[in-house]
Amino acid sequence: MNFTNKDGVLIVKDIIEAIQKNKDYLSEIDGAIGDGDHGINMNKGFTMALEELNENDNMSSGFQVISKTLMSKIGGSMGPLYGNFFRGFYTVSRNEEVIDGVIIGEMLDKAYSNITSISPAKVNDKTLVDVLDPAIHAYHEVYQSTQKTKESLEAMVNASKTGLESTKQMIAKLGRASRLGERSIGHQDAGATSAQIILETFATSAIKLLK
Hints:
Keywords: Kinase, Transferase. With 211 residues, this protein is mainly α.
């Protein structure tokens, strides 16, 4: 099962809409142990990206627009992190007319490696890595055994939810929240939250397109 890169622009638009809808929720999560502006900054960047999209964009060029916008216009750590994340999606898929389960796996791997190349974050540091790592591993585990894209995406979503929940019991090791030490326990991480939203939206929208 697969979908065309052209039709895949729906995924880009759905991810932007999901961030916009969760703007207040993301800032509320961030407010508990951070600056409280994660939702504001994410919404600003993704909304600006939406304004840059045009009718000729496909999935790859849409992700490139998000990447460039976040890298150039959003400060803090999330601009570069997510800018590089979506650049990974673009880099792998840009020359592909058809997107299948193998390409999706490569997109996820490149996006994740782009994150780890610029961030020291490891699993259990209470960051977006605690969502990305188990989610992407789950995708590959199911795909390697079944070759079924839909089931692999569903496994990714389930693992992303488990990963997000796990951040509540972690002590923050990086960023502003790390200053709180053990007081950060009991709160889920804002970056992990937006990562989970992005992965789930990607999966849900891709499943709709699979033929």
